[in-house]
Amino acid sequence: TITWDGGTIGTRQSGHIHNLEDALFDVQTTARLTRWDGDEMTFLNEGTFRKSTTEGVFHFTQGIFDNQGKIEIQAGNLSLDRPVVLDGEVEATGGDLILQMGGSLGGPFRMGESQELLFATGGYVLAEGFSYPDSALFRVDNASVRVLDAVELQNVSLARGSLGGPGTISITDTLEWTSGTLLGEDSLVSR
Predict the structure, then answer these.
(1) How many angstroms separate the CA atoms of 147 and 161, rounded?
(2) How many Å apart are CA 63 and CA 139, to the nearest integer?
(3) pTM of this prediction?
(4) Closest Cα to residue 19, out of 79, 60, 56?
């Protein structure tokens, strides 16, 4: 178990962080995980990466965040400001997940009723295996989200971005569409 409760963690010369299966990397700070010099780092999570105990936003600002395990957001928000691979589970019961630089999402999401998944900038692919809970807001704001398989969403907000297929998007409750583009033929089903 690693408990990080303050100070900056940085890597040099292509340093990487590998959180092994059954391990816990517990973030209890709003400090930054960064790279001081060298090539971009990779944070490979095969265990549990947890954001806990502090309000505010924790920013992952360098390299690729590759989640093959589980991300837990128990307090505050988690902002992944670099490319992501989110094939593992994401559980956000106490804060939001903010995505900033593009990537792929192929795992299940479990979100609290008042939480949201925000695609803030970048291009994203929702791959086979992606699932999203009924009540949480799925918000696309100045990003591009491409759905490869069928996905069901209850509450969607689309502003200054794009959302589309080739996969089918079923919206079961509300689409708040203030600007942006829906893409693809026969890719949107409203119930």
Answers:
(1) 14
(2) 24
(3) 0.93
(4) 60
Contact 54, 74 (CB under 8 A): no
| Rounded Cα gap, residues 20 and 24, in angstroms | 8
What is the pLDDT, as a whole number, of residue 19? 97
Per residue in 29-51, pLDDT (tens digit) is: 998 877 777 677 889 999 999 99
* Rg of the chain taking only CA atoms, in angstroms: 16
- Owner of token pair 């360098």: 62
Give the integer Cα–Cα distance in Å for 180 and 102.
Answer: 17
Helix (H, G, I), strand (E, B) or coil at 54: coil
Cα separation, 72 vs 74, whole angstroms: 6
CB 36 within 8 A of CB 10: yes
d(CA 179, CA 159) in angstroms, rounded, equals 5
Residue 25, pLDDT > 80, answer yes
Residue pointed to by tokens 């902002």: 79
